[in-house]
Specification:
The protein is of the alpha/beta class and 327 residues long. It folds into 2 domains: 214 residues, HUPs (Rossmann fold); 89 residues, Pantoate-beta-alanine ligase, C-terminal domain (Pantoate--beta-alanine Ligase, Chain: A,domain 2). It is built from 10 helices and 9 strands.
């Protein structure tokens, strides 16, 4: 089968022009937002998008505004050429790879803004190192030299507060904002998000509803390696021993689901068993929450569809996973 070479677009106006031209021809567009370093989980999102749309756009952009200063923006893995090869090898291929250097560069003049939020987090102004990163096509600051910083943020206030929002208070603000920007630039008919990032998926669904985007948001099931570990670009940073220990996450969640299906309704008992198993395997728990699948509100007894969400550290790598429980 002949490989399909995607068109690579780096400019916002060219991306929007392409989308509008295709839509004028009656084509539907599917968007798969990614931060690159693609794995089979991402490929499954593309395949899902192919089921819903005529044309596929994959965005590759490491969004700096969802990383706090202490987080792993500088070490987030990237392999753009490898990503292109994976997409070329995919049956049906993709039509466009949208690969902007900086979605927060507006070319305006003025003094540099500190752009701090209430908690003191900011996207810092561009340094010499940042210029070098721009040249390499890596992530760059959302504030350029002699420019006003990005000042408009999208927040889904209730849904972003729990779970990942507790330890990463600016994360979902950054995610919702960059996804809004991508929606406004690409103008897709559908967008596919992985349910491994369950809270993120629900936040995007609510944002689309509340802001009247005419976009169908599709949630795609978690893809796991043969050993059961949920696929993540950050898995590359796990040592062999840490990876082996991290398998305790899915094993513990699977046991909890079986227990719930067998009649255990106490969320406290289920949480205790899961956190104990992960801790005994060397993991450091960030959170373990059993929440309603739609509202993400915590529940004490399983009487309706819930999702058990986990975040845990193994070494310097923070992993998230979840399992839906339908009783």
């Amino acid at each position: 089968m002949a490989r399909k070479d995607p068109e690579i677009i780096t400019e916002k106006d060219l991306m929007r022009r392409w989308s509008r031209s295709m839509r004028a021809q009656g084509k539907t567009i599917g968007l798969v937002p990614t931060m690159g370093y693609l794995h089979q989980g991402h490929i499954s999102l593309v395949k899902e998008a192919q089921e819903h749309a005529d044309l596929i756009v994959v965005s590759i952009y490491v969004n700096p505004c969802q990383f706090a200063p202490s987080e792993d923006l500088a070490t987030y893995p990237s392999d753009f050429q490898g990503d292109i090869e994976k997409l070329r090898a995919l049956s049906g291929g993709v039509d466009v790879v949208f690969h902007p250097q900086n979605l927060y560069d507006y070319g305006t003049s003025g003094a540099v803004s500190e752009n701090n939020d209430a908690s003191g987090n900011s996207c810092s102004s561009q340094s010499g190192d940042d210029k070098e990163k721009r040249a390499e096509g890596a992530a760059v600051s959302c504030i350029g030299e002699r420019q006003y910083g990005h000042e408009t943020w999208v927040r889904v206030e209730r849904l972003e507060k729990g779970m990942c929002g507790k330890s990463r208070p600016i994360f979902f603000r950054g995610v919702a904002t960059v996804v809004t920007k991508l929606f406004n630039i690409v103008e897709p008919d559908i967008a596919v998000f992985g349910k491994k990032d369950y809270q993120q998926w629900r936040i995007i669904c609510r944002m689309v509803r509340d802001l009247d985007f005419s976009i169908n948001v599709v949630g795609s099931e978690i893809v796991r390696d043969a050993d059961g570990l949920a696929m993540s670009s950050r898995n590359v940073h796990l040592s062999p021993e840490e990876r082996k220990k991290a398998l305790s996450i899915n094993k513990a969640l699977s046991r909890a689901k079986l227990a719930a299906q067998s009649g255990q309704v106490s969320c406290r008992e289920l949480r205790n068993s899961v956190t104990q198993a992960i801790s005994e395997s060397g993991g450091k728990i960030d959170y373990a929450e059993i929440v309603d699948q739609e509202s993400l509100e915590a529940v004490e007894e399983i009487k309706r569809p819930v999702v058990f969400c986990i975040a845990a550290w193994f070494g310097k790598v923070r992993l998230i996973d979840n399992i839906e429980i339908n009783v």
